[in-house]
Amino acid sequence: MVNISATVDECPVKMRIGNIDLEGSLCVPTRARAIVLFAHGSGSSRLSPRNHFVARELRLGGLGTLLFDLLTDKEETIDDYSAELRFNIKLLAGRLVGATDWIRGIAGAEDFKVGYFGASTGAAAELTAAAERPEAVKAVVSRGGSPDLAIEVLPKVKAPTLLIVGEDDEQVIQMNRYALKYLDVEKKLDIIPGATHLFEEPGALEKVAELATDWFVKHLVGK
After folding, report:
1. Which of 155, 92, 98, 87 lies closest to 125, judged by CA?
2. Collapsing DSSP states into helix, strand and coil, what is residue 69?
3. What is the pTM of this model?
4. What is the pLDDT of residue 30?
5. What letter does residue 221 receive in the DSSP assignment?
6. pLDDT score for 107
7. Which of 46, 47, 182, 220 is the most buried (most CB within 10 A)?
8. What is the C-alpha end-to-end distance of the chain, expressed in Å?
9. Which has the closest alpha carbon to 18: 54, 72, 63, 58?
10. Is the backbone of residue 143 left (phi > 0), alpha (psi -120 to 50) or beta?
């Protein structure tokens, strides 16, 4: 059994969700009372360097983080060949809901506020999961995401939502502007100047981390 007070340093975890096990990495700073779960994007994993960069910044802001694989090793092999599972938003959201329930079942974390940070198709998964767990999920951030893939559930989302897109990622900007209209919560679209889809430009990912940290601190810690 994982003890939330024992995870000041990054801790490998295995989560039992339904009849499968998912690998993850949990880190909770001392005195943290909120945790952000990461929903990685298409074809990515818990090892995403961009998500790990953002996670480190969130921990500096006093937030716990959980990065985990949304698919099993067998499913990853299938997806590498067919790319079909990375767009199965219902499946991915179900895994995120399961991880949310798992983290809140850990001793010491029962009352933690939960945030979601998603990228690409992970944005649709996190918004779908947020609509299913409104009592737990109190903030959502999307990086270069596809929230339009969750258009049917967006009016049900109760968590304040921040959408971050690169200025030169024009198609994704349009997708996010379209989705924004369907969100009936505190919401914001931040466009980072000069950034492309992967935020590889100097300072772009740092700006993503800054915006995300401010949003999560405001809605998970500040209330």
Report:
1. 92
2. coil
3. 0.91
4. 83
5. I
6. 73
7. 220
8. 30
9. 72
10. beta
CATH of the domain at 128: 3.40.50.1820
Q: What is the DSSP letter of 175?
A: H
CA dihedral 50, 51, 56, 62 (to 10 degrees): 140
Cα–Cα dist 7/3, whole Å: 7
> What tens digit of pLDDT does each residue of 138-184 get?
999 999 999 999 999 999 999 999 999 999 999 999 999 999 999 99
Amino acid at 15: M
Task: Give the C-alpha separation, 63 to 81, whole Å.
Answer: 36
Q: What is the number of other CB atoms lying within 10 angstroms of the CB of residue 10? A: 16
* Total domains present in the chain: 1
Buried b (16+ CB within 10 A) or exposed e, 147-166: bbbbeebbebbebbbbbbbb
- Position 8 scores a pLDDT of 44
Phi–psi pair at 178, nearest 5 degrees = -65, -45
Q: Which of 36-50, 75-89, 123-137 has the highest mean pLDDT?
A: 123-137
Rounded to whole angstroms, the Cα distance separating 113 from 32 reads 10
Residues of the domain holding 61: 4-221
Let me know: does 165 contact 194? Beta carbons within 8 Å.
no
